[in-house]
């Protein structure tokens, strides 16, 4: 497609000035940083997302989270990072772990940010509260200590993941918890103290963590992460939901609204904005992402006529401009019957070489040389290939070598001037070459001795 340079330059300037990054539905709201644990709030014509900030190094095996960011949008597609508006250091009594939070507007017109944070005192996680005069702050500690801690009577096994909900009569409710323990309480009008005793809501089947509460057409909804075998693989989580006619329950479980995602944790925020409902959640789909390098994304959510929610379609990662794979027909010398050749061109950015969440091409138990191929109805000019290898740590391993080839009209030949064909794990292996005009591009793969090979994603660029 012909580039419109003037428009492109104008857009680049706009991006530089505003730090707004266009996001297709399903794409990360930003790839400048890793984000997690979204909460959503609509103020006027703006959708605000409050997120955690993953700073674990590549291959890290623990959360490294020091602050929270605010993102704003007026179209739920392009988000502007307003920066780190709250940090662990804003709570003098806390020392680490800026985990999930949510912001709610109080009756006094101020914005209260309920957070999960690790206190310096006895116990582990606490719920703190910061307050600011606008949706973007600045925010300061509203209490000078935790609202909920391990010493709060009847608190959760792990006091994290607050969700705050204001009913039509002005009563504010706090839900929170993890490790299969959900708790709820009324808040006083000051937004910083508990009114009455803490309850354990009933009927919230398979609750694990990450509650999110909202109301629609007089019905209360509670969405939450669940990690039972009925909805996710071991160590992963889906999002289930329950409904109730009273904000404190009892709740009736209604099903799964979001399947497991590519990160082990799952975390919902559900909100209506400009007449459309959305599911905001995180996954590991951004380049270089992982379980501790997550990315917040947004997809549309639809209700059935009876008020139940349809399962959210995860639209995948960002569409990569110029990737000709989308319009190609794939074929192969062999694919295992249980694998999916089409997965190599679904546009997904794998979290790592073991990320089978969007399917994979695999040729177990064939060994030696196999190939995958793209074919187009008309000749394409191609100058770059990018392949993300599949390695299941079982019979499929990284290849010994590979070669990009093209159909020259009578035979397959190696692409000329190739920079090489990489076989590294956990990344796109790029090969650039002298442009070829062809209707067929082939990736020839030679396995390591004793193993088969597989591909998660293969891109071809003009
Ligand atoms: O980000 C840290 C924790 O992971 C959150 O508090 C949980 O909801 C899970 O997403």
TrEMBL record:
SUPFAM superfamilies: Arabinanase/levansucrase/invertase. The record marks 161 as: Important for catalytic activity, responsible for pKa modulation of the active site Glu and correct orientation of both the proton donor and substrate. One of its GO terms (molecular function) is hydrolase activity, hydrolyzing O-glycosyl compounds. Coiled coil: none annotated. GO terms for biological process: xylan catabolic process. The active site is at 37 (proton acceptor), 209 (proton donor). Residues 1-25 form the signal peptide. Keywords: Carbohydrate metabolism, Glycosidase, Hydrolase, Polysaccharide degradation, Signal, Xylan degradation. Belongs to the glycosyl hydrolase 43 family. PANTHER family: ENDO-1,4-BETA-XYLANASE, PUTATIVE (AFU_ORTHOLOGUE AFUA_2G04480)-RELATED. This is Xylosidase/arabinosidase.
């Amino acid at each position: 497609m012909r580039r419109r340079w003037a428009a492109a330059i104008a857009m680049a300037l706009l991006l530089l000035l505003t730090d707004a990054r266009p996001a297709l539905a399903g794409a990360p709201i930003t790839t400048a940083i890793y984000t997690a644990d979204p909460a959503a709030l609509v103020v006027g014509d703006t959708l605000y997302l409050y997120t955690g900030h993953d700073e674990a190094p590549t291959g890290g095996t623990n959360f490294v989270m020091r602050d929270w960011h605010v993102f704003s949008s007026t179209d739920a597609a392009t988000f502007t990072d307003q920066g780190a508006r709250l940090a662990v250091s804003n709570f003098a009594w806390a020392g680490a772990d800026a985990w999930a939070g949510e912001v709610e507007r109080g009756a006094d017109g101020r914005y209260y940010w309920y957070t999960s944070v690790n206190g310096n005192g006895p116990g582990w996680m606490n719920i703190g509260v910061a307050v600011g005069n606008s949706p973007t702050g600045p925010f300061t500690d509203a209490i000078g200590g935790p609202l909920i801690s391990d010493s709060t009577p009847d608190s959760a096994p792990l006091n994290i993941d607050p969700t705050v909900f204001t009913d039509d009569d002005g009563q504010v409710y706090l839900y929170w918890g993890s490790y299969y323990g959900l708790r709820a309480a009324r808040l006083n009008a000051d937004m910083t103290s508990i009114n009455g005793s803490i309850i354990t809501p009933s009927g919230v089947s398979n609750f694990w963590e990450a509650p999110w509460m909202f109301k629609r057409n007089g019905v209360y909804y509670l969405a939450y992460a669940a990690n039972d075998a009925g909805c996710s693989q071991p160590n992963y989580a889906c999002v289930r939901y329950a409904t109730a006619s009273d904000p404190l329950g009892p709740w009736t479980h209604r099903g799964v609204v979001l399947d497991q995602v590519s990160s082990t944790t799952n975390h919902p925020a559900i909100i209506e904005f400009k007449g459309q409902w959305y599911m905001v959640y995180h996954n590991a789909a951004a380049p270089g992402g992982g379980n501790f390098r997550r990315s917040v994304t947004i997809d549309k959510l639809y209700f059935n006529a009876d008020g139940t929610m349809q399962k959210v379609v995860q639209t995948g990662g960002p569409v990569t401009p110029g990737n000709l794979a989308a319009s190609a027909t794939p074929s192969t010398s062999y694919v295992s019957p249980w694998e999916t050749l089409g997965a190599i061109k679904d546009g997904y950015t794998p979290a790592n070489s073991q990320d089978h969440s969007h399917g994979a091409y695999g040729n177990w138990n064939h060994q030696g040389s196999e190939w995958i191929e793209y074919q187009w109805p008309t000749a394409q000019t191609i100058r770059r290939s990018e392949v993300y290898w599949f390695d299941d740590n079982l019979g499929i391993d990284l290849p010994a070598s590979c070669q990009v080839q093209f159909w020259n009209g009578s035979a397959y030949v190696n692409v000329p001037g190739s920079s090489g064909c990489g076989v590294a794990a956990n990344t796109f292996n790029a090969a650039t070459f002298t442009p070829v005009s062809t209707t067929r591009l082939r990736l020839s793969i030679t396995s390591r001795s004793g193993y088969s090979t597989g591909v998660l994603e293969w891109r071809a660029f003009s």
